[in-house]
From TrEMBL:
Organism superkingdom: Eukaryota
Gene encoding the protein: LOC115974820
Record CDD domains: MFS_FBT
Source species: Quercus lobata (Valley oak)
Listed GO CC annotations: membrane
Keywords: Membrane, Transmembrane, Transmembrane helix, Transport
Membrane topology (UniProt): Multi-pass membrane protein
InterPro entries xref list: BT1, FBT, MFS_trans_sf
Transmembrane recorded as keyword: yes
Protein name: Folate-biopterin transporter 2
Coiled coil residues, start to end: none
SUPFAM superfamilies linked: MFS general substrate transporter
Transmembrane segments: 44-64, 118-135, 141-162, 183-205, 211-229, 302-320, 332-352, 384-404, 410-429, 436-457
Length: 498
């Protein structure tokens, strides 16, 4: 009897152990099965394209490029903080014309292909620009700016093109649309985390020009996607239709923008972004300057700080998705804009060195500062993205969304140049930071000023419709080719990556 009980106990322990092992292995295999499923349903080249463009080119490459560029301007070109702000705005110009790239990939096939040639061109542009920056010993500032702008254009064109592929596959496989958005978001977030974590180490070991040399790899992979992508050829495309399609899309967008229910929220979005002045370069020069008055952070520390900021941004997106997404736009924007202004006071405490009086180290305090700033910035940005999606009329949803994102990017450019102008006026230089506290204070006041314009935002919740009925109905006889909508921008895209 005892032997039988012992055998039962032993067999029970074995079964439990087998179940736990199978459960652990099952959890590890879920992502693999998920990738296999996506690759089977939509071809492995598409999945690889998303991983390369979102994860490697924009995520990892974007993080390396940001940190490398900041140290390149500071240590190699030796420009002032205000000048670095202006130059950063110039390199972002290719992102302002995203609708142009979108329309080109949509209506202008090359050699019978609508996507592959644009990936090849984007990768080629990135490789050439990064080669020039990394190999030239003393590149003139104008040529350096041109190379950085060309590299930015390569990333922007690849971004628009992969968004077109995601849009088309979302229409062809509607049940997998959410999975594709998750793939885009996860790739971008993980790539940014890894990139920022490694950026400081690479800048320390090989310098900013060496980092530009490493960025040849992401650009080369984008070029490879253009060769490998599975796409049908259209040999008999009628190029006489191109002009008419451009004209039709332009007319439809202009008609929509004239609607008060559309231009009023667009005006608020632009102003709320433009007046939130970006003074990042001033702060960057201050906390990396080797002096007794500042923290004197190393390259590795800067990279780690930015990676923690990426975590804060991801937490903000998760918080919005699970808690705040059903709140009315106006109420949510009021609190996020107010908190966005108050969060800037952490920079003021850091620059005035008040944190040291409370016994809080610079390293710990700036990690908190960056995390809070990125999280609140994400919470402020998410409802604006959702509102933008609600303002898109049927038939031109993708291109019009790209237009709205370009308006927001113009706001970011205005904030960048406005911040540079403020740094210049108050004489914040590479070595003089006496007025930096005043710059921060002015910026914080301007951050809360958009609260006076909240009446431009509709009162409804995200589940409401804001467009008039005529924009929500497709007119009979109008050709609305949904498969050619160029952009299905993920609502999780980081505003840091544009």
């Amino acid at each position: 009897m005892m032997k039988e009980e012992n055998l039962e106990e032993a067999s029970g322990d074995t079964v439990e152990e087998h179940k736990s092992k199978r459960g652990f292995c099952g959890c590890c295999c879920i992502p693999i099965h998920w990738f296999k499923m996506l690759a089977t349903e939509m071809h492995w080249s598409f999945v690889l394209g998303v991983l390369v463009v979102y994860g490697i080119s924009q995520g990892l490459g974007g993080a390396l490029n940001r940190v490398g560029t900041e140290y390149y301007m500071k240590d190699v070109q030796k420009v002032q903080p205000s000048e670095a702000q202006v130059y950063g705005g110039i390199t972002s110009i290719p992102w302002l014309v995203k609708p142009l790239w979108g329309l080109l990939t949509d209506v202008l096939p090359i050699f019978g292909y609508r996507r592959r040639p644009y990936f090849i061109f984007a990768g080629f542009l990135g490789v050439i620009s990064m080669l020039l920056l990394s190999l030239h010993e003393k590149l003139h500032l104008v040529l350096a700016l041109m190379s950085l702008t060309a590299g930015s254009a390569g990333v922007a064109i690849a971004d628009v093109t992969i968004d077109a592929c995601v849009a088309q596959n979302s229409i062809n496989h509607p049940s997998l649309a959410a999975d594709m958005q998750s793939l885009c978001a996860l790739s971008s977030s993980i790539g940014a985390l890894v990139g920022f974590f490694m950026s400081g180490i690479f800048v320390h070991l090989i310098g900013p020009k060496g980092v530009f040399g490493l960025l040849i790899i992401p650009a080369g992979l984008v070029f490879l996607i253009g060769i490998l992508l599975d796409e049908p050829c259209m040999p008999n495309f009628d190029y006489r239709q191109v002009n008419q399609r451009f004209i039709d899309a332009g007319k439809a967008m202009w008609t929509t923008l004239k609607c008060p229910d559309v231009w009023r929220p667009c005006l608020y979005m632009y102003i709320s972004i433009a007046v939130s002045l970006d003074i990042h370069e001033g702060m960057f020069y201050w906390y990396t300057q080797d002096s007794k008055d500042g923290p004197s952070f190393s390259q590795e520390t800067v990279g780690f700080i930015f990676s923690i900021g990426s975590v804060g941004s991801l937490l903000g997106a998760i918080l919005y998705q699970n808690v705040l997404k059903d709140y009315p736009f106006r109420d949510l924007l009021f609190w996020t804009q107010l908190l966005f202004g108050l969060s800037g006071m952490l920079d003021l405490i850091l620059v005035l060195r008040l944190n040291l009086k409370f016994g809080i180290s610079d390293y710990f305090f700036i990690v908190i500062d960056e995390s809070v700033f990125r999280m609140i910035g994400r919470l402020k940005w998410m409802p604006l993205l959702v509102l933008s999606a609600k303002l898109c009329p049927l038939g031109i949803e993708g291109t019009f969304f790209a237009l709205l994102m370009s308006i927001d990017n113009v706001g970011l450019l205005s904030a960048t140049w406005g911040g540079g102008f403020l740094l210049h006026v108050l004489k914040v230089t590479r070595t003089n930071f006496d007025s930096l506290w005043l710059v921060i204070l002015i910026r914080n006041v301007l951050r809360v000023s958009p609260l006076c314009l909240l009446y431009l935002v509709p009162r409804g919740d995200p589940n409401s419709s804001f467009l008039p009925a005529e924009f929500l109905e497709t007119k009979e006889g109008t050709e609305t080719q949904a498969t050619e909508n160029i952009e299905l921008v993920s609502l999780i895209n980081d505003v840091d990556g544009k």
